[in-house]
Design brief:
Layout: E1 4-7, E2 10-20, E3 30-40, E4 50-54, H1 72-75, E5 80-84, H2 97-100, H3 106-113, H4 118-133, E6 138-143, H5 145-156, E7 161-167, H6 177-198, H7 202-215, E8 218-219, E9 225-226, H8 228-232, H9 243-252, E10 255-258, E11 261-264, H10 266-276, H11 282-286, H12 305-310, H13 318-324, H14 339-342, H15 350-358, H16 368-372, E12 378-383, H17 391-400, E13 404-409, H18 416-419, H19 423-432
Parallel strand pairs: 4-5, 4-6, 6-7, 7-12, 12-13
Antiparallel strand pairs: 1-2, 2-3, 3-5, 8-9, 10-11
Helix pairs in contact: 3-15, 4-5
Length: 436
Amino acid sequence: MSTASRLPGIVTTDHVFQLPLDHASPQGEQIDVYAREVVASGREKDDLPWLLFLQGGPGGKAGRPLGRDGWLERALDDYRVLLLDQRGTGRSTPANRQSLARRGGAPEQADYLAHFRADSIVRDAELIRRRLVGDRRWSVLGQSFGGFCTLTYLSIAPEGLYEAFITGGLAGLRSSADDVYRAAYPRVVRKNEEHYARYPQDVDAVRRIAAHLAAAPATLPDGGLLTVEAFQALGLMLGAGSGSGTLHYLLEEAWVEGVAGPELSDTFLAGAQAKLSFAEGPLYAVLHESIYGQRSVDPAGTAWSAERVRKEFPEFDARTALESGAPVLFTGEMIYPWMFDTDPSLRPLKEAADLLAARTDWADLYDPVRLAANEVPVVAAVYHDDMYVDTADSLQTARAVRGLRTWITNEWEHDGLRVSGGKVLDRLIAMMRGEV
């Protein structure tokens, strides 16, 4: 039964749908997929168009609104919004070290997790649409990985869509995982350079921490290990609008005077753990490279692409940088196999992750022919020099999708939808309506 709640300016309604784990076997095992309906207070009975929100990730649950906040402030003027907890996340049937242990060994876990990519998420959405609105089409808003899912939606079920909004999520239709990371590492170098230009004192601060960790990794409060490579992974923050400042303030409190002299502070270690732990979203790590897997593009599988390609960029070797006196560079949105050793929430999933990395039969996620004949109106925000999604890939995809209009901006970083107070979505809605 659906449950309604009232919050400042909004009314939310809970929905839980039983859907096939494997859409090719609709009568087989079922999983729960949760979605939260959000409508402006006083408009509960209005016949509003629906807007499905596809969250970034992979493995990210939808946001938990406390009122008319963020982009919802703009969306609720025109839409009834559905916030989907994509399969395996949030209140949907969870996929984590605890629940996956019940599936059996690593092969059974990997086979199960193979059903958690964008194609399954889109087929979930189509079943939900038909149950909620029948034959009516709905609109979709895809942020980051949610934009990847939107391209898959346009490829396999465009008949369900009235219009599509994409923010920071135009994936390369024919880009392999290796292509993605070869383009990503130079962008991450630029983000490092920008950070060190903004906070030149951080060059020495980062070198000092890296040297300490290279000699002896630190233990995090949850029992995880902060190695020098794990420390470098804090660079994931550099792609967000406030990420550089947040990283700087974390570094400011790195040291405390202990009994035996300077040591890394509990404040710093707790802050690093909060940014590095995958306890709340293990699917992000387990499935990350699989979002690029397409058998016609990557016939050999992804095979821990970020780790392999990193060797082509020796400037990211922290120990070499320490020896040469160069700045130690942070990495970005990369998942490495060693993370399944250092993070307690990932350790039980290491073998399953290895099997997924070796998988070679990933179905194609995009249909270039169908996208070239697209009839669904699509508008997309492309963030100039986005650290997470390659701008060149995005623009090439924009040209490949018939009728897609882009807004290219450097006013916002990858998290523009979340932090702009509705301005990014307002611009896209105006574009969709032909007002700009």
